[in-house]
Specification:
Layout: E1 11-18, E2 24-26, E3 38-42, E4 62-69, E5 72-78, E6 82-88, E7 93-101, E8 106-110, E9 121-125, E10 128-135, E11 139-147, E12 152-156, E13 167-171, E14 174-182, E15 185-194, E16 199-203, E17 214-218, E18 221-228, E19 232-240, E20 245-249, E21 260-264, E22 267-274, E23 278-286, E24 291-295, E25 306-310, E26 313-320, E27 324-332, E28 337-341, E29 352-354, E30 359-365
């Protein structure tokens, strides 16, 4: 019951959306100490109009929880897979979709996307994976939903603003696309996708229009980092969908374009990219402290790669090393190490990646 000696039972503290790696629940009120216990389970009832399937993937899933501070708990969804989709294989635009199983250390081909694209965004949402926008030869708003159980891609309503070289993330039951290149014009356009209503809704544009940038969600906000304006950029912005505002945060230490983004263990990460030359630079962003901290660089410097988090690790896959690459690496933030994993079957760059999917959890606290 915690060191405070309280004997009170559990308090139903609510529900929160948690993505793979987006591992923070913030409690409405701080606890009296940090020795409280709390538990979280995958929810099966609707929240915010969304009714996600409970466990859509064949790999088992569980919820791992731990204390962070008196007002925050860390969550990790274990199990599932990472995915890479579309891109360019060096010869042609690709629709290839692959599933990565970190336990077996294997890449498995899945049904190809319906619309071959590169320079696209990816995110997970409500038990599915999504790819949005990209370049088919012209800027596209094509949005597709991938069901790994059925192994099918289904067309959804196209994004309102056709763009390439944009960022994507999932947040609070919706998918988001931000910034990019709209037929030669750099844009800060930000759109929210509601898969239940099958609609894209314009949100306030990013303050700094950029393209070839990274995106991730963290602690109830969406983030865009780095990219290219008239030069490589380190700009980092936080998007609050409730307030519909973008707020500048401390810039990344290393200005880059073409990096991968993912969230992991209560932090956001950017990895690799191009500073004028390919880099393996990896940085950890702490939104509470508003700081970027350098971590061990990726073993293989690349740009235009895919990133996702899975099972307590961050992953970077494929990209451009000067040649098209299939390299896949696993980043352990605790050990601060990158470890090579089995390469993707199809080498590609300018591809999209996503983890197993966004869910919401019910959470209970003790000693509240």
């Amino acid at each position: 019951m915690g060191s405070s000696g309280k004997t009170s039972g559990p308090t139903n503290a609510g529900r929160a959306w948690i993505s793979h790696g987006n591992n923070v629940i913030t409690f409405a009120a701080a606890h009296s100490d940090t020795s409280y216990r709390w538990v979280a389970t995958l929810s099966t009832q609707p929240m915010g109009g969304i009714t996600p399937r409970n466990v859509p993937h064949t790999a088992p899933m569980s919820v791992a929880v731990s204390n962070d501070t008196a007002s925050r708990g860390l969550v990790r969804l274990d199990g599932g897979y990472g995915f890479s989709t579309c891109g360019h294989d060096g010869a042609a635009v690709s629709a290839v979709t692959e599933r990565f199983d970190d336990v077996a250390n294997t890449h498995t081909g899945r049904t190809a996307a319906t619309t071959a694209r590169y320079q696209l965004a990816g995110y997970s949402l409500g038990g599915y994976g999504f790819s949005s926008c990209g370049n088919t030869g012209v800027a596209s708003g094509a949005t597709e939903r991938f069901d790994d159980v059925a192994n099918t891609h289904t067309g959804r309503t196209a994004a309102t603003t056709a763009r390439s070289e944009l960022a994507g993330y999932s947040l609070n039951g919706y998918g988001f696309s931000t910034c990019g290149n709209a037929a030669g014009t750099v844009t800060g356009a930000t759109e929210r996708f509601d898969d239940v209503a099958n609609t894209h809704t314009g949100r306030t544009a990013a303050t700094t229009a950029r393209y070839i940038l990274a995106g991730y969600s963290l602690g109830g906000y969406g983030f865009s980092s780095c990219g290219y304006i008239a030069a490589v950029s380190a700009v980092t912005e936080r998007f609050d969908d409730v307030a519909n505002t973008h707020t500048g945060r401390t810039a990344a230490t290393t200005a880059r374009q073409g990096s991968a983004g993912y969230s992991l263990n209560g932090y956001g990460f950017s990895s690799c990219g191009n500073t004028g030359a390919n880099t393996g630079a990896t940085e950890r962003f702490d939104d509470v402290a508003n700081t970027h901290t350098g971590r061990t660089a990726a073993t293989t410097a690349r740009q235009e790669l895919a990133g996702y988090s899975l099972g307590g690790y961050g992953f970077s896959s494929c990209g451009n090393t000067g040649a098209v690459s299939a390299v896949t690496e696993r980043f352990d933030d605790v050990a601060n190490t990158h470890t090579a994993r089995t390469a993707a079957t199809t080498a590609r760059y300018y591809l999209a990646g996503y983890g197993t999917c966004e869910y919401f959890v019910d959470y209970l606290t003790f000693n509240a």
